[in-house]
Amino acid sequence: MFNHSLLLKDKDINFLEAYYRYGKHKDFNFAKYLWLIGIEIFIFAIITLFMLFNINSYKTMNDKIKSNIEKYKNIESEIERFQIMKGLLENKQIFMKDIIEGNNSLYNILTEIESKIPTNLKIENLNISKEKLTMMVVTNKEENIAQFIYNLQNYDCFKNISINGITNYEGQIRTTITADIVRK
């Protein structure tokens, strides 16, 4: 349109050059910038959707993990309860084993006493504890008491065997025998 050399000669025509440049800038293409802004908004929308999707998926995973933690807490509390029950049952088993062993030793002592009793001797009263044996015996001969005490002395389960008085009432001889029980 304008000759550029003309503009340089006259300095008064600077207004024309300004108008010319203004016109050139008017040819500026806004469509390109609108496309760029549109693409940026589209990319931002895609990134936002992706982030929202990730947030929702993480929230779902977090809820699942929380429910699993609650399940595991219930399982953990049941395991602790079973461990307590196991400990109690083990203590009970140990206690029962001690009682059975104690009863077995008492049973062995009773069977040994039965085997050592002479035929004419009767036991009227028998008390057995863990450490002491006390019995009241009745017979018609003193020799039976002596034989019974001798038999008990030969059995290594008793020591400190003693007689606490002998009474003779109507032909029945009664005495109380005490002995300490030796645990093996």
From TrEMBL:
Top-level division of the source organism's lineage: Bacteria
UniProt keyword annotation of Transmembrane present: yes
Key words, A-Z: Membrane, Transmembrane, Transmembrane helix
Transmembrane segments: 33-55
Keyword hit for Oxidoreductase: no
Matches recorded under InterPro entries: Extracell_DNA_Util/SecSys_Comp (IPR052534), PilN (IPR007813)
Pfam family, one: PilN
Entry protein name: Fimbrial assembly family protein
